[in-house]
Specification:
Number of domains: 1
Strand content: over 45%
Structural class: mainly beta
Largest sheet: 5 strands, mixed, barrel
Radius of gyration: 20 Å
Shape: flat
Helix content: under 10%
CATH class: Mainly Beta
Number of helices: 1
CATH topology: OB fold (Dihydrolipoamide Acetyltransferase, E2P)
CATH architecture: Beta Barrel
Strand order of the largest sheet: 1-3-4-6-5
């Protein structure tokens, strides 16, 4: 599971068997204070691959800079390069994704008319669910 920003627009292709596949990279940031009290920052880049309908959704709605939650499994592939040296690539094969940007893109001041309101169903007088009553 990672949360980060796309470093480029998703590249969507179709396999010879007709399946859609999207690939893109997500950057995650890590900030800490070192022993001398200086703030340090580091970015890590993750290769992500999505298949079928999820790939089509990524291609349609995600773009460079989009904030996204990605859930999936790690997969490492290897191959011999042209120089004969074995090369490796680890990627996240996406199984679930949540778009964290507001619909419509842009900054918050432009999104006020694009926010959808979701109404919760009426409870018919049932008791409110409280966190302390949840058994896990």
């Amino acid at each position: 599971m990672i949360i980060g920003n796309l470093t480029r627009d998703p590249e969507v292709r179709t396999t010879p068997s007709g399946q859609s596949v999207a690939s893109f990279s997500v950057a995650t940031n890590y900030t800490w204070v070192d022993q001398s009290g200086q703030k340090q920052e580091k970015a890590e880049f993750h290769n992500v691959v999505a298949w079928r309908k999820l790939a089509e959704i990524c291609g349609q709605y995600l773009k460079k800079g989009s904030k996204v939650y990605v859930e999936g499994r790690l997969q490492t592939t290897d191959w011999a390069g042209q120089d004969g040296v074995k090369k490796y690539r680890t990627e996240i094969v996406m199984e679930n994704m949540i778009m964290l940007d507001k619909m419509g893109g842009g900054n918050a001041t432009n999104n006020t008319n694009n926010i959808d309101t979701i109404s919760l169903p009426e409870t018919d007088g049932e008791e409110e669910i409280r966190v302390e009553n949840i058994p896990f």
